[in-house]
Amino acid sequence: MPTFFQVIEFLGTFAFAISGIRLASAKQFDWFGAYVVGLATAIGGGTLRDLLLGVTPFWMTNSVYLICSAFALILVIFLGKWIIRMDVTFFIFDTIGLALFTVVGVGKTISLGYPFWVAIIMGCLTGAAGGIIRDILINEIPLIFRKEIYAMACVIGGVIYWLCYHIGVPPIFTQLISGLGVFAVRLIAVKFRITLPILKGKEHNS
Amino acid sequence: MPTFFQVIEFLGTFAFAISGIRLASAKQFDWFGAYVVGLATAIGGGTLRDLLLGVTPFWMTNSVYLICSAFALILVIFLGKWIIRMDVTFFIFDTIGLALFTVVGVGKTISLGYPFWVAIIMGCLTGAAGGIIRDILINEIPLIFRKEIYAMACVIGGVIYWLCYHIGVPPIFTQLISGLGVFAVRLIAVKFRITLPILKGKEHNS
Amino acid sequence: MPTFFQVIEFLGTFAFAISGIRLASAKQFDWFGAYVVGLATAIGGGTLRDLLLGVTPFWMTNSVYLICSAFALILVIFLGKWIIRMDVTFFIFDTIGLALFTVVGVGKTISLGYPFWVAIIMGCLTGAAGGIIRDILINEIPLIFRKEIYAMACVIGGVIYWLCYHIGVPPIFTQLISGLGVFAVRLIAVKFRITLPILKGKEHNS
After folding, report:
1. Is A37 on the interface with B (CB under 8 A)?
2. C87 compared with B107, residue with greater pLDDT
């Protein structure tokens, strides 16, 4: 029986893969290309984290992430039009994925003995780097650099994790509160259209 | 004296480097840029594989790959027009490279004790990721996501490797049959214009 | 008290971060996106080097690089127009950064026992790969593949390092001469508009 945590992780991976596959389909990728982009979106952030931490990438010890991305592809192939209309559902899944991935990234980094500021960066990478890799693969400017609060939600979640950890909140609640923090920040930001200021400049190389 | 295997590896590296350098030349890169793109095409896949496997990248212990890519650059500089007409020759070299790189990637991963599905992924990465890195460097959508059977040939070669290994075929024949499988699949796919279905969708972010 | 070397390193990191943030601002990135691009420009090359060498990325043990990039962002936010006019100043900083990063990369690789040709490549990566990552993130063709002598200055600096090392020059002078070599080559190349030949070709895939 999968635990509650594993079900959540499955949903998050699934939502991330769907987001990659949908964008790939807009570029007329074939099934293989769409699968690669979906998979890279789902596991790219955690893979970068694990490479930086010097541990074996998480998906190399458990095939569930690959299977989960394959399910996402099959769903888009068979139910494409229906899926494309489910924007709100996938926004929720995606935000759950973001929250969960952030918490996993922060927790894993701390358990390896790194300082907290490294853990917060790793939380951000786990949550947001997959989307950056996705956008590089489809040759677009990464969305999260220009649109909405996204990675900032991970930063805030990481800081909440650190505060909880510091004042001695039990691990399970620390994770829950931090994850809810990410979820809430992203939800509020999108709902009230809160964005970061834009840097304006002229094209200029140094 | 180089072995038969080493000669094949040299040809594969060479063909991959040429493919990178030709595309770089279409973008008006300078010699250095073209060399970097050629080199990244030739060694990028194996480097990513070795980083994921946690071993020293293969080209850091043997300078032949860098020299081979330099030869490719010199050839394109001096014989550019002549080379550009040799499409069929380079298609053959490139496909040999793909087959060999796949077999090397699968074999290396198994020898490190990873399960077979990891080995198949590593075979694909070794064969196909160099081309993806090349296309990112020249700022194009990766060709293999939209055109022809390419990475799928690696997957099929990996599965053949696994089957042979499973029923106890001796290593040398396992490698040969698997490599020939990759070669044959790609050849047949291009010859009969067999492609994977395209995913069609609208531009849409989640 | 920071040493002379640390001050130089701070200036180099700062100049690299500024270069990333300026280009990000030309693409209308938000503050977070600009910070990420600035940081990636400043630490991307060294991170790639450390991943390839199999050691912990340098910025994970010292937060000064992140803080330094944050200063660069604040400066651009508050003094953007003024900064954009300081082309010559930043060209000097950037070239100092290039020289220093190259020397650090070569030195670190040698101290880990790798052969010299690996060290020269790592010197180039440390100095130039950050700019390539920056250009990938802003979805442009990497500048250094088409413009000016840049990475070639790193190669020449690396060769000078090797020569000095070989004939027994004390480490501190080896580093100084090699760094000055990088600086001089880049300065002379820009001053006299010396460039590498361009490879010309037609769009063509193999």
Report:
1. yes
2. B107
Q: Among partner residues B19, B32, B91, which is closest to C152 by beta-carbon distance?
A: B32
What local confidence, expressed as pLDDT, does residue B147 receive? 73
Residues of C in contact with A139 (CB under 8 A): 139
Q: Is the Cβ of C77 closer than 8 Å to some Cβ of chain A?
A: yes
How many domains, in total, are found in chain B? 1
The answer to whether residue A206 scores a pLDDT higher than 60 is no
Q: C29–A199: do the CB atoms touch at under 8 Å?
A: yes
Token pair of C51 as six digits: 């991943």
Query: Does the residue B205 lie in any domain?
Result: no
All residues of chain B having their beta carbon less than 8 Å from the beta carbon of residue C52 are: 47, 51, 57, 60
Q: List, for residues B70-92, the tens digit of each pLDDT value.
A: 999 999 888 876 776 777 777 88
The answer, for A90 touching chain B at a CB cutoff of 8 Å, is yes
By CB neighbour count within 10 A (0-12 exposed, 13-18 middle, 19+ buried), where does C181 fall? buried
C165 inside 8 A of chain A by CB: no
Q: What is the pLDDT of residue A91?
A: 83
What whole-number distance in Å separates Cα of residue C45 and Cα of residue A96?
33
**Coil/strand/helix, residue B115:** coil
Residue C205 lies in a domain: no
Cβ–Cβ < 8 Å for A32, B152: yes
* Residue B159 within a domain: yes
User: Hey, are the CB atoms on A136 and C138 less than 8 Å from each other?
Assistant: no
The parent domain of residue A95 ranges over: 4-191
Interface A–B counts its CB contacts (< 8 A) at: 94
Residue B204 domain-assigned? no
Give the C-alpha separation, B194 to B163, whole Å.
24
Q: Residue C129: closest CA among chain B residues belongs to which residue?
A: B36
Q: Rounded to whole angstroms, how far apart are CA atoms B117 and B115? A: 6
Q: Which residues pair with B30 in a beta bridge?
A: C198
Residue with tokens 């990135």: C29
Q: Is C60 on the interface with A (CB under 8 A)?
A: yes
Q: Do C145 and B32 touch (CB under 8 A)?
A: yes
Q: What is the DSSP letter of B59?
A: G
Neighbours of B113 (CB within 10 A): 7
pTM (global) more than 0.80:
yes
What ipTM does the predicted assembly reach?
Answer: 0.89
